[in-house]
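Batch job 17 of 40 flagged for manual review because the log was empty.
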Amino acid sequence: MKKESKTCPPAIIKKEFERLTVELSWKSSQIEGNTYSLIDTEILIKENKEAEGHKKEEAVMILNHKKALEYIIGNRNEFKNLTLRKIEDIHGLIVDGLSVAKGLRKKAVGITGTKYRPLDNEYQIREMMEKTVDVVNKKLDDPFSKAIFTMLMISYIQPFEDGNKRTSRILGNAILLAGNACPLSYRSVNEADYKKAAILFYEQNSARFFKELFIEQFKFAVGNYFLA
């Protein structure tokens, strides 16, 4: 486990969080179809300058990642225990200004690339989310198991109208940070592999490929961030 708060001076930690924020905001948005380049993302985040030839919504999506990351970094101890409200708060930051309803969805959704259909009943969705929170808090001991389980279940349940996978990636990092583990940027992940891992869980309830992907990204993060 990477103990970045103990191995790096505060100035290095601040700089590395800034770098990770740029790279995660770029890659997480790219996975969802955002066309900003890494350089354009860095300029947007650091100078608040939008790239020409791109939709306003793409800039909003990226800046929402920045806001959500700042929130979990500043409140890392809050995620030692999970609540549905905390998950909804992160989702609210992720979809702010994107014409997406906040809170648990009240209608059916479909997922591109799979025949799997998530629950379409608001009360069943709430029940499943509460069970997920209960498992994370009471049955899982380490931040890695908690992060992987939470990310997979949010992606599987699809509790929100949109922004589920973005929310899951931020929430996974919130859980890692609460456990004093290095957060992930997903910079080196292949978008097709990420989507394949999610679809395998949807259709076969197999978490193996997603776990392998998560481990690879954790190794990448440990080898590239918070190095004194």
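Reviewer: the log was empty due to a logging misconfiguration, but the result itself is present. The mean pLDDT is 94. Unflagging and moving on to job 18.
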